Amino acid sequence: MSNWDETRDKLLAHYEELERKHRELDKELEERYNNVPATDEARRMKTMKLYLKDEMHRINAYLIQKGLE
To answer: pLDDT grade, residue 67 (50/70/90)?
Structure first.
C-alpha cells in the first residue's frame, strides 16, 4: 500500500467519524431543543456541530487538492 493510499484511508476514516458525530449532534439538538429557547448547552452543541462541519470540509478539500478522492 502506498503512502498516499494510507493517508487517504486515514483521512476518509476520520471524515466518516466527523460526519457521524455531526449527524448525532444534529439529531440530539433536534430532539432536545426543538421549539425551546436556546440554552448554553444548545449553543455549545451547535458550535461543535459547526466545528465538525468545518473539519469535514477541510479534509475533503485536502483530498481533492491531492487527487486522493
So the answer is: confident
8 A C-beta contact, residue 10 and residue 59: no
Rounded to whole angstroms, the Cα distance separating 29 from 36 reads 10
Measured CA to CA, the distance from residue 58 to residue 11 in angstroms comes to 10
Which position has the grid cell 457521524? 20
Q: Given this model, what pLDDT does residue 36 score?
A: 65
Q: Provide the pLDDT confidence category of residue 21 given band limits of 50, 70 and 90.
A: very high
Rounded-to-10 torsion of CA 36, 18, 54, 67: -150
Per DSSP, the residues of 4-55 read: HHHHHHHHHHHHHHHHHHHHHHHHHHHHHHTTS---HHHHHHHHHHHHHHHH
